[in-house]
Amino acid sequence: MPTDKERAAAFDMEWGIIKDKLAQGVNGVEWLVLNDNPRDHVKKALGDWFGILKAYGITEMNDAERVMQDALIMDSETYYKTHEFNWWVAVRYTLTYLHLLKKYNYDRYFNFMQSLEKKINQGGGSH
Questions:
Q1: What pTM was computed for the model?
Q2: Domain limits of the chain?
Q3: DSSP letters of 32-74?
Q4: pLDDT tens track for 81-124
């Protein structure tokens, strides 16, 4: 059983990799999606994330995807100031969403990634 210190070190390492890959743009996001293996409880909680977005008035899927794209291109402070959501949680659920989208609805995944790339190229990133 890992100690709290070991768990904290693993958490820091995981988020260090995520931040590094996000800084690489669409290619880094693609790498994260390819290497993501979300746990079942995270997949099930994805519905809760969409429920939170809906509670904040984000009811259209395109708007929800824009909020998710922002999580991938903004730093945590900018993301919170813009959306008032926790960046870490948003990134986790966005990667889970993309993992499932790529598996079950590749066309929508492809459109999401193209839109993300366009946003990045327009200077939308702050990592």
A1: 0.88
A2: 32-121
A3: HHHH----HHHHHHHHHHHHHHHHTT--SHHHHHHHHHHHHHS
A4: 999 999 999 999 999 999 999 999 999 999 999 999 999 998 76
